[in-house]
Design a protein that fits this description.
The complex is a heterodimer of chains A (378) and B (424). Chain A is mainly alpha-helical and 378 residues long. Helix content of chain A is 70%, strand content 3%. Chain A has a single domain, classed as Rhodopsin 7-helix transmembrane proteins (Rhopdopsin 7-helix transmembrane proteins, Up-down Bundle). Chain A has helices at 2-10, 12-22, 50-80, 87-115, 121-155, 164-178, 180-183, 213-258, 274-305, 313-336, 339-348, 355-362, 369-377, and strands at 195-198, 203-206, 263-264. The N and C termini of chain A lie far apart (65 Å). The chains are: A mainly alpha (378), B mainly beta (424). Chains A and B meet through α5, α8, β3, α9 and α13 of A and β5 and β6 of B.
């Protein structure tokens, strides 16, 4: 009998009871005048432990440092090096700008985590959402534009390169692409959609939980606008690009055969796999895009059209983290592994690229340095 | 390193001075091109330009000197390398490489695999002078090998220019498949060119076009005739234009262009550039019922197209005179689509402007722009053509790299061609 009592007093049921007594539900600290901010869905979950907020703040702090340094280096190099100011690099510069936009949110989240709510209420949420969306929509389209630029340069190496003017127009296009659905959910604009806190209620994004047609249209629209269209473009351009590279390789092989060539220099190892090497890089970029935006797309679509019970606060935080991680990786993929950027960086601060020499030495022939650097990515 | 190279040259030069003063020597003036791996391997070539005569291409004949102590039982191999560069280095992203190298001929030079090689005049001379450590070699371009062409880089372009290049590379090693070690390989850039055929052709290229108008009767007829089929670089292209206007519109002005068409077969792309142009209102307007005849002269020159990106030039080595790329000749019985590398052609384009509503009337007359064969320029020498040895001899006599002093061989050190290898 005593034993049973003891078990009851310390067993799971008791623990659960204690937990409920001490634990607030999500949204407990939102005053009634701002209660509209928090969707009823989140109120069903207990507020996360302080430790979780601390972990989020720590993760974001690290991401912030990575993003600032990586993207900062890219912008700095682009602005100060004349030889890097090429049309193609303009898009890489633009990518860094967009990623820095994303970075602006990170200190906000760190502060939010300490308050365990969004500071600035509606306005804070709008600002947070605005920067996140511009950066997100923008970089999705910018990825497509980079794919287009690479397709032009590689498929038509003689005369395909975009002019600076055209590149600038495309860059503006990216920003215009990002703007409409970033501005429309703002409280002051209030045209289409709405920015609300999500997950731990410390980050903000567009509303995908409100159960009305307006929200569903909005989610469907941005799903197509910021995910499907850029994704299709990226796939289209990289597939075309690979097709052209294959064509070039075939043409060269035919000519070599006609001349009775005994050996294509270097054909044995690296040259042979040019297509595969390019395909690898293309797939890598494609995967990064998927990692970056599929979580958001999934969660928004689930929230809108699916079983929203699976969207726990923890799950709700994941897409934001994924998008932010990718924004830190971008500069490494696009710029710091770009042979020209790399060379310039090595010239300015050799301490940062110490492995450069050894890796290119390992490749022995300087000719293949380009290939080598790109290969390390994949 | 460079200094050592200089010394080698000087030593040789002084040696040669000694021998050249001996009486009874062939009085052939020839310039010898050489490049060396200081003190160890030196390659000598009688010329850098190898001419594609369509049926055959000049053999690449030369002599290599290697010290036996350096060789230590190893062998010397040679390769002819053709490099296609069809995109700028700075555009190489995603691991793409816009250049392809092909070994179009290769073989072992030392020890010689051929017991009794047929030697050309220059090889004999060089062997005689350079002593027991000299070995002759002969390589061949395969038939249809592309000619050397350089696409002029633009202002902002850095890196190697696009085009087709050839080089001869020798290296010391144990097997022909070995990748030549940097330290022991020597490379010289060479060129493969085409000269105009002996006959410039009797046919005068011409074109006749006419244009009608939707809402009015009558036509504007345009006939353009050139005075030759093949022009030499630097010559005036004379285009006789005959305009006959039976329509109710009038011709407002006349534009003439020399168009260079460049087909980069490696990437299946082609583009055209105006290399000479003129616009005139002379005789204009050519009113309804009127006729106009006039000959215009245009001179397509590389010098008037400096710094324009993408103008095709004949392959050239650093200090050479540059001329526009020569038209690509295709051997008889070969289909033009079989041509390789960069294919060049020219046409003269005339545009008549018939006012804003009338539109334009345009026609192209193809012609060829080439260098004359210096050998055939002098008719006395043509008799000597039959014997291959005399061809060579004549060619050297004719190339007339006359120097002031009486040295009959002048050695020129080519800067060692760097094969993308960083200096150690």
């Amino acid at each position: 009998m005593e034993l049973v009592e003891f078990i009851n007093a310390t067993g799971p049921r008791f623990m659960a009871q204690r937990f409920i007594e001490e634990q607030h539900m999500l949204g407990w600290n939102i005053p009634p005048e701002h209660a509209d901010l928090v969707h009823i869905h989140w109120r069903n979950y207990p507020a996360p432990d302080n430790v979780w907020h601390f972990v989020m703040a720590a993760v974001y702090f690290i991401l912030m440092l990575l993003s600032t340094s990586g993207n900062g280096i890219v912008i700095y190099l682009f602005m100060t090096t004349k030889s890097l100011k090429t049309p193609s690099n303009l898009f890489i510069f633009n990518q860094a700008l967009l990623d820095l936009c994303m970075m602006v949110n990170m200190p906000m989240l760190v502060v939010n985590s300490f308050y365990q709510r969004v500071i600035g209420w509606e306005t804070g949420c709008d600002i947070y959402g605005l920067f996140g969306s511009i950066s997100g929509f923008g970089s999705a389209m910018n990825n497509a534009v980079i794919a287009y630029d690479r397709y032009r340069t590689i498929a038509f190496p003689i005369d395909g390169r975009l002019s600076m003017g055209k590149a600038f127009i495309l860059m503006c296009f990216v920003w215009f692409w990002a703007l409409p659905f970033s501005l429309s959910p703002m409280k002051s604009v209030d045209l289409f959609g709405k920015y609300v806190p999500e997950g731990f209620l410390t980050t903000c994004s567009f509303d995908y939980l409100t159960d009305d047609d307006h929200t569903r249209y909005f989610v469907a629209t941005i799903f197509v606008w910021a995910y499907v269209i850029p994704l299709l473009l990226i796939v289209f351009f990289y597939v075309q690009l690979l097709g052209h590279v294959r064509g070039h390789e075939r043409m060269l092989k035919e000519q070599a055969k006609k001349m009775n060539v005994k050996s294509l220099v270097g054909n044995q190892d690296k040259e042979k796999s040019a297509e595969i090497r390019i395909a690898k890089v293309a797939i890598l970029i494609f995967c990064l895009f998927l990692i970056s935006w599929t979580p958001y797309a999934t969660i928004a679509l689930t929230g809108c059209f699916g079983n929203r019970n699976v969207i726990t606060p923890m799950f709700g935080m994941l897409p934001a983290v994924a998008a932010k991680i990718v924004s830190c990786i971008d500069p490494w993929i696009y710029a710091i592994n770009h042979p020209r950027f790399r060379a310039e960086l090595a010239k300015r601060c050799p301490c940062l690229i110490t492995d450069e020499k050894s890796s290119s030495d390992a490749q022995s022939t300087g000719t293949h340095a380009t290939a080598a650097t790109e290969e390390t990515v994949s | 390193m460079e200094r050592v190279a200089d010394l080698t040259v000087n030593n040789l030069a002084s040696q040669l001075e000694d021998t050249s003063t001996k009486p009874g020597q062939d009085q052939i003036n020839s310039r010898i091109f050489m490049t060396s791996f200081p003190g160890k391997v030196t390659v000598y070539l009688g010329k850098r330009d190898f001419i594609d005569h369509l049926e055959e291409v000049d053999p690449i004949d030369g002599v290599i000197v290697v010290e036996n102590e350096y060789l230590k039982g190893r062998k010397v191999f040679g390769q002819i390398i053709t490099t296609y560069r069809y995109g700028r280095e700075e555009d190489e992203v995603m691991g793409v490489k816009f250049s392809k190298e092909m070994i179009v001929d290769r073989g072992q030079i030392v020890p010689s695999t051929n017991e009794k090689p047929e030697l050309t005049v220059i090889q004999e001379k060089l062997l005689k002078k350079l002593g027991p450590n000299a070995y002759p070699f002969t390589f061949h371009f395969p038939s249809g090998a592309p000619s050397s062409v350089t696409l002029q880089p633009g202002d902002e372009d850095t890196g190697k220019p696009l085009g087709v290049e050839h080089a001869i590379k020798t290296f010391v090693g144990d097997s022909i498949d070995e990748k030549g070690h940097k330290r022991s390989s020597v490379a010289l850039a060479i060129k493969k060119l085409q000269y105009a055929p002996p006959s410039r052709g009797r046919r005068l290229p011409s074109s006749l076009v006419s244009k009608g108008f939707t809402f009015s009767q009558g036509k504007i007829n345009l006939e353009v005739t050139l005075d030759r089929e093949i022009y030499y670089h630097g010559e005036k292209v004379a285009a006789t234009i005959v305009v006959n206007n039976t329509s109710r519109k009038s011709v407002k002005n006349i534009k003439c262009y020399v168009v260079q068409h460049c087909e980069v077969t490696m990437v299946n792309s082609q583009f055209s550039r105006y290399v000479a142009s003129l616009e005139t209102r002379e005789g204009c307007p050519v009113t309804p019922g009127a006729a106009f005849t006039k000959t215009f002269y245009l001179v397509p020159l590389a010098s008037s197209n400096k710094d324009r990106r993408g103008i095709a030039l004949d392959g050239h080595l650093k200090d050479d005179d540059v001329n526009l790329a020569s038209s690509t000749l295709i051997g008889e019985g070969k289909c033009p689509s079989e041509a390789m590398g960069i294919v060049i052609s020219y046409s003269l384009r005339v545009k008549l402007s018939c006012g804003t509503l009338g539109g334009e009337l345009q026609t192209d007359v193809p012609f060829k722009l080439m260098n004359p064969d210096p050998l055939l320029a002098d008719k006395d020498k043509t008799n000597a053509l039959k014997k291959s040895k005399s061809i060579d001899r004549a060619r050297y006599e004719n190339s007339c790299y006359a120097t002031d002093d009486d040295d009959n061989i002048v050695f020129e050190d080519f800067a060692r061609l760097r094969l993308n290898e960083p200096d150690e």
